[in-house]
Amino acid sequence: MHISMDKNTMNKPAILTLVDVNYQQRLFDINISIDDGGCLFLLGPNGSGKSTLLALLAGHTQACDGEYRLAERSVTDYPIAELALQRAWLPQASPPPFAIPVYQFIALGLHPLGISLEDEQACQVINQLLSRLDIAKLVERNCDQLSGGEWQRVLIARTLVQVSPILNPQSILCLLDEPLTGLDLKHQIEVLQILTELSESGITVIASIHDLNLALNHASEVLLLKAGRVVGQGDAAQVLTVDTIKQVYDVDTELLAVNGRQFIVSAALPVSV
Ligand SMILES: Nc1ncnc2c1ncn2[C@@H]1O[C@H](COP(=O)(O)OP(=O)(O)OP(=O)(O)O)[C@@H](O)[C@H]1O
């Protein structure tokens, strides 16, 4: 994946291009271009615009200044049914909308694809996700009978069904707003692994997260926002420097190297008296 804020590079084909995008008083002068699959993590403090940008990339928020092209076509030109074939979007977790069995809820991801549960391949894809996301034992329950982390994994499963490369050859983009929130360590690692595999299969993955160390060790690239503006983009190790973290998060940090990997830790706190 390549992201550039340089408008001169925007004449080459890109999956996703934003030119001079401004939205209300929430996003300012956004110029980005993403030209192939990869796993991009969207970072920034609370209120910096991550969810707003993801909603915009999903085509949900269209009333913005500037231009957004998905697969070289203005997002405003997409009929909603076609948009739903190209991208899936997991908004920030919200409570279950109604008491629907887990399996039926996940199968809602098939709806935009025009595939029913009678399709054997669809059932195989769903069953594999149930197993990998450790929710197979929950399928008989209703969505309003789950813990927060279980519900989050069900939401992720429904999103992944929609962009499954096996079921949907038109899918190109998977957008996830804080997919790791509420997940324990084991399930975070599994979701990260699934997202990596999805990106390796050619689907561009863009996910917002708050854990800088996960970004440092798992992202192909990061995009760092502060107050609605892009302040850094590119390789995580180059963007997430001690100086940039101080500038964006107002936190003093240090970099630690352990077994050849870098970790960001908060700088030693002053000893209290
Ligand atoms: N519906 C809304 N109407 C007006 N302003 C909003 C609305 N939703 C969010 N905002 C504002 O837009 C800005 C960006 O919010 P956004 O939710 O995109 O941030 P975020 O980076 O996703 O934050 P967080 O990490 O807390 O989820 C914030 O100043 C927020 O207060």
UniProtKB/TrEMBL annotation:
SUPFAM superfamilies: P-loop containing nucleoside triphosphate hydrolases. Residues 10-252 form the ABC transporter domain. It comes from the Bacteria. Pfam families: ABC_tran (PF00005). The keyword Lyase does not apply. InterPro entries: AAA+_ATPase, ABC_transporter-like_ATP-bd, ABC_transporter-like_CS, P-loop_NTPase. Its EC number is 3.6.3.33. One of its GO terms (molecular function) is ATP hydrolysis activity. The keyword Cell membrane does not apply. Part of the ABC transporter complex HmuTUV involved in hemin import. Responsible for energy coupling to the transport system. This is Putative vitamin B12 transporter subunit: ATP-binding component of ABC superfamily btuD. It comes from Moritella yayanosii. The lineage of its organism: Bacteria, Pseudomonadati, Pseudomonadota, Gammaproteobacteria, Alteromonadales.
